[in-house]
Amino acid sequence: MNDLFSVGYQCIAETSPTDKLRLTRLAAAQWRSNELSLSSKNEPLPITEPGRPAAPRLVPPQDVPRRSLGSKDGHAALLHAIVHIEFNAINLAWDAVYRFREMPAAFYSHWVKVADEEAYHFQLLRQRLWDLGYDYGDFPAHDGLWDMARRTAHDILERMALVPRVLEARGLDATPRIIERLRAINDTETIAILDIILRDEIGHVEIGSRWYKYCCEQRGLDPEHTFQALINRYIKGQLRGPFHLEARRKAGFSDKELQALQSMVS
Q: Is 98 in contact with 7 (CB distance < 8 Å)?
């Protein structure tokens, strides 16, 4: 029997987006069918670059060009930015599976499910890009999500706090505003896709919240105090509002955490 960790690593390492989606779907189906074990003789390798295609060209966040949504290129560039986030999210979910061993089986079920759903989101958005005459890789992008994966590779508690509950939770805040911008240009097809993604992403951030709180409980730490301390250490001065409070509450944020986040917006 193959082990989940080796299969997860294959998904991370695959450079072709089409093959990464195929491997992800296969791995998720095998896990659901109890065809993959949680036994492995190999320790996780140090985190490096994930498998990704030669394009898009990666640049610092401030160097990603800003384009008007009213132009054809601007419309496609906005979708491309979201496609890039979803591609990174596939790798991030698999890295959580691959890197952090000795967790309850439910942890792996949750993150395999996240990887599978992120692959579905990527497929939907890439098809929409094709409809507009573009493809993933046609615009530059940045590497902020994977950079945080590197910084938290040493500690599952920090990974759960800072990737799902900070970086991915930004999507909960941003998606309703993006939908309003797309409504102004009557892009109902993309809006329908983003409605699916927002629904699923609330669940993904909630999974991060659940396992973050589990790790805090295992270590005897107060989750609210610890979360604020991690924000101060890693993200201080970089938080952006406004926050989608209803979505964040559904995703496992307490009112105290939300109040603290609102007080820290730069």
A: no
